[in-house]
Amino acid sequence: MAGISCGLVGLPNVGKSTLFNAITKAGAEAANYPFCTIEPNVGVVTVPDERVDYLTEIENPGRKLYATIEYVDIAGLVKGASKGEGRGNQFLENIHHTDCIVHVVRCFEDDQVVHVHGQVDPLDDIETINMELILADMEFADKACQRLQKKAKGQDKVAVAQLEVLQKILKHLEAEQPLRTIELNEDDWGKIRECRFLTVKPTIYVTNVSEDDLPEMNNEYVQRVRSLAEKEGAVVVPICAKIEEEIAQLEEEEAKEFLEDLGLEESGLDRLIKKSYEMLGLITYLTSGEIEVRAWTIPMGTKGPQAAAVIHTDFEKGFIRAEVTPFGAIKDHGSKKAAQEAGLMRVEGKDYVMQDGDVVFFRVSTK
Question: Considering the entire predicted model, what is its pTM?
């Protein structure tokens, strides 16, 4: 499937670029003043997957390839962005091209780090950004309604149906509510499939805390954000961006020791990457053999032929069957061969819905 992209957004100086540096080890500029980031920095990172590591260990292939996800460091948005303030039009367009919003908010006090509003208030920060996204969506919905009204007056049934949905959407936005909280059925969404709304995107709030908040990372600011996220259907991932940037510079074993010393089981970045994957409704299937062990990304609910097409588009048309061995069975028996000898490999047809962790060999016709 096409690359998965998550946009890092937030007010200036909340830690976005510091977090981006840690995610990609790309050295994106991070400075203590607004609008440090103008053009969006892009980094592609691997999705941590112990199953890939285990299969590599027992198969000893020529190479291993993890699933990947893209993070885009979008410049700090400010009040008025929806009207073009602070190069807002460009920044909003960058958000349009992402699949998920990762909204970074500052949840720590530090007199040495300038805050664009002069005080730390994560809910106020969130409201500022959300309001700009809501206003941008309102403008889009209003223009769409105006375009459809003439057709609707002419009894165009499609236009009438679309207008009805867009009017519901506009009313919801006018109540200053993001579209991820609106109640619309699949049929309604289908009527406006071409509309590119910002506030409908899955959202993760990254609460950037100080080193003093480790390992719990659940201070009063974070708790406020959690309460808001619960109402919105968003999720919260607490992270200390400064620490994550330090961890990113360490070798794997050193990083593990450092995390243990901090009382953490895994890095905040690993949790963010996994949560991004989960929020987008994605799962992983695996292929393994002498040449490579590889993780492949597919949407939840994908059937065998469409999953095979991720490897090569011709595989969907030539799909014969999928030989599926659950990863858990392989791990329990110590090898793919042993699991198959125990009768745990299944032969599945075109209607099989792929499951996370399936280890698959596709039989396809090349004619």
Answer: 0.86
